[in-house]
Amino acid sequence: MISMEPAGTEPDPAEVVAAAVRAVPGVTGLYAGLFGEVATHLAGRRVPGVRIDDRGNAEVHVVLQWATPVPATAYAVRRAVARLVPGEVHVVVDDIAGPGEPMDTGGGT
What's the superkingdom here (predicted)? Predict the structure, then answer.
């Protein structure tokens, strides 16, 4: 994987969470909301679909693949993120990608 981070710097926790969420089977991508309001804003970039507050609580908004079991997949997302943040994890399933809809490749906005 090619990193966009300058050499010697570590990715922001929101970027690590986003990568872990995208790796969960059944997750099509992260959802930033209709107006991009669900995101972590970093210097010169954003991480759509992930918010982490000052106490380490994470809010993750996802789009799932068609025919994916919603409760089990949301639980898998919660478990993946809980390993990365010290606080609570809230998973919001915002949409289901219909059959044949393209998968999010994680490019973000």
Answer: Bacteria
Instruction: Determine the pLDDT at residue 24.
Output: 98
Chain centre distance of CA 101? 19
105 class by beta-carbon count within 10 Å (0-12 exposed, 13-18 middle, 19+ buried)? exposed
| Cα(40)–Cα(14) distance, integer angstroms | 7
CA dihedral 16, 109, 29, 24 (to 10 degrees): -10
42: how many CB neighbours lie within 10 A of its CB? 12
Distances (CA, A) of 62 to 8, 11, 28: 30, 21, 8
Q: What is the pTM of this model?
A: 0.83
